[in-house]
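not sure who needs this but someone in the group chat was asking about Glyoxalase from Mediterraneibacter butyricigenes so here u go. i didnt clean anything up, its just raw.
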Amino acid sequence: MKLKNIMIVVKDIEKSKQFYHDLFGLDMILDNDGNMILTEGLVLQDEKIWREFLEREIVPKNHACELYFEERNIEAFVEKLERIYPEVEYVNRLMTHSWGQKVVRFYDPDGNLIEVGTPM
């Protein structure tokens, strides 16, 4: 068995596609009417489809998982984040853990938690 994709729920697929392209360089591989596969295996799914399928409300900012990215030049990444998306909501701004890794955590436009850290 092989893990193929990670799916997140979004309100506006086009806005989210742009967000993940701008910050992480992810590009669309397949657009399947409410389900969009991006490079690196990230799948965006329209919130309406997911809610209908589950028959439950979506809970943004639930802190149950995060998308984790690594970036060597994290200071440049944070500058880009603040320049392109100044309205982004941070969980924590750039910090250094006791083990020396620098990280920043923030939400995407739909409340999905993202962490960007320096490689260990």
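also DSSP finds three helices and eight strands in the chain. if thats useful
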